[in-house]
Amino acid sequence: MAAWYDSAVFYHIYPLGLCGSPKINDYQGGGQGFKQLDLWVDHMAELGCTAVYIGPLFESATHGYDTTDYKKVDSRLGTNEDFIRWVKLCHNAGIRVVVDGVFNHTGRDFAAFKNLKEEREGSWGKDWYCQVNFWGNSPFNDGFSYESWHGFAQLPRLNMANPAVREFLLDVVQYWVQTFDIDGIRLDCADVLDFNFMRELRTLTDGLKPDFWLMGEVIHGDYSRWVNPQMLHSVTNYELHKGIYSAHNSYNYFEMAHSIRRMYDKNYGICKDARLYNFVDNHDVDRIYDKLENKKNLFPIYAFLFTTIGIPSVYYGSEWGIAGHKENGSDDPLRPAIDLATFKGPNLELEAFIAKLAHIHTECPELIYGQLDELLLTNRQYAYARVYEGKACITILNNDEQEVWVDIKLPFGGGVCTDLIREEDVPVQGDHLSLTVPGNGAMVLRLC
């Protein structure tokens, strides 16, 4: 039986940025972020999204990943009751809710680290962190040293070998599922998380909710190490993310096609039975608008995102083609405040195109279950079919500025072919299809 996440279209929100929350948490409460976020529920539904990944949400000191309290919603956004209400609002709109699980490290204001600073050798917190050394020192002059995430001393790394730490984190997950009725967790820094912890987490969540979704942030490597029946359902597809913008900038669709074959080839693909989490930008990387040399290629890029194998995700604001790139090492420009009540998107044509693709993705089982078969591959044109139960969804991409005439051999002959974007029939000649694809454009067709 298919789970909800198999056919999901995700919307990704970084709430502290979107709501324009203060950069430093004074822990005084009073945040009204969820009132702003209410408006986005209808927007997500109208865009065709069926799930939202929102995070980080745990109470934290600054950017959200330096957790202070794992059982409290960040007070700059609102209260636990506010989030309970917001999840219900999403569920009523047919939108599942996935949150960030920041389990590799904490902030320095977290109870275990505060206890370590106060009690030192006699603290219960000393065994909660990795490589605590009372003969050393930290950049904060604590009088002891400790391992941190990527050398950022404000993010001390949790000791997953400590059963008390694992028990605490599993209890946190159970609390979030039972209190807020969330539908999944995205594991921050999953590429360095303890594998045994992820196995324990999978066992727990399978028991709490049979269709609970676990997705991990993984940058490099063999994704099948994390995606398997004992651990995670999916991971972030950074390999394909790089191929998407690079292939369009270098006029080289072979790069994208290679990534698809490496992961999903039905014989030797390393993730052939998985559905990875696909994206063109997020809260950690420059906006796709900034990455592209030719901004018109946003259209074939999103056509690919919604019709290739995997779970598509749209990062808030990018449906309008907004800009955003890191400046002086800061991620803030990637995470802008947007007041939906007054904001006017710069590219409404792109928004409408993405909404069309989202509905096509949801309505075509071929795009969920079908294998991907290449029909045409050149540097500047790429056509493929997703075939399932006697139907085929065919995508044709063109990264050239000029329109191009293509002739492709169909996966089967006969039948009716419909242009799903323009909603008009396309003539088929036997088992061939000949047509013109617009410059920097895409076509999505259905053969029945």
From TrEMBL:
Pfam families: Alpha-amylase, Malt_amylase_C. Residues 25-361 form the Glycosyl hydrolase family 13 catalytic domain. GO terms for molecular function: hydrolase activity, acting on glycosyl bonds. CDD domains: AmyAc_euk_bac_CMD_like (cd11353). The keyword Transcription regulation does not apply. GO terms for biological process: carbohydrate metabolic process. It comes from the Bacteria. SMART domains: Aamy. Keywords: Glycosidase, Hydrolase. Transmembrane segments: none annotated. Belongs to the glycosyl hydrolase 13 family. This is Glycosidase.
